[in-house]
Amino acid sequence: RPAFRERNVSGGNEVRRVCERASGTCWAAKFLKIRKSACSRLGLERSGVEQEVEILQAIQHPNIVTLKDVFESRAEVVLILELVSGGELFDFIAEKENLLESEAIEFMKQILEGLGFMHSKNIAHFDLKPENIMLSDKVSPHPDIKLIDFGLAHRFHQGEEYRSTSGTPQYIGEEDESFT
């Protein structure tokens, strides 16, 4: 019998809310399909998923989603992550219409603290966009920022030069368009 039971599947079928049977604590389960063969276009390279796991294990910080556990089979890897239920920061701001300067400062401070911590570990996110900046919950009057989705993140080694064409096309800067 699995230690987790599925509850309230929402959105697509990639991330599901699951609850630990013993404690009742809820988590987010991120299901990552693994490529069946090198020439397959479906799924992810196992090495890329392993890199995401290594990075999440290295960056435990209050403003970065926490990795609790990993389950794997030949066909998929399931990341058990902190449940971040407050929605996207972008949606929060759009709903509110007026964001106080003090609130904006607090959000920016938390984003920069999370990024600063990652960068101190020589890790870059490479897919930072409004959809990947979440709020910890909906009930707190001052929710915490949580950076999510480290599938494109990279840990740099001394003297390494890095070039990549990955990322979200709408968010690629003009200086990077020569790579597309």
UniProtKB/TrEMBL annotation:
One of its GO terms (cellular component) is nucleus. GO terms for biological process: intracellular signal transduction; positive regulation of apoptotic process. One of its GO terms (molecular function) is ATP binding. InterPro entries: Kinase-like_dom_sf (IPR011009), Prot_kinase_dom (IPR000719), Ser/Thr_kinase_AS (IPR008271). Gene3D superfamilies: Phosphorylase Kinase, domain 1 (3.30.200.20), Transferase(Phosphotransferase) domain 1 (1.10.510.10). Keywords: ATP-binding, Kinase, Nucleotide-binding, Serine/threonine-protein kinase, Transferase. SUPFAM superfamilies: Protein kinase-like (PK-like). Residues 4-180 form the Protein kinase domain. It comes from the Eukaryota. This is Si:dkey-240h12.4. It comes from Seriola lalandi dorsalis. The lineage of its organism: Eukaryota, Metazoa, Chordata, Craniata, Vertebrata.
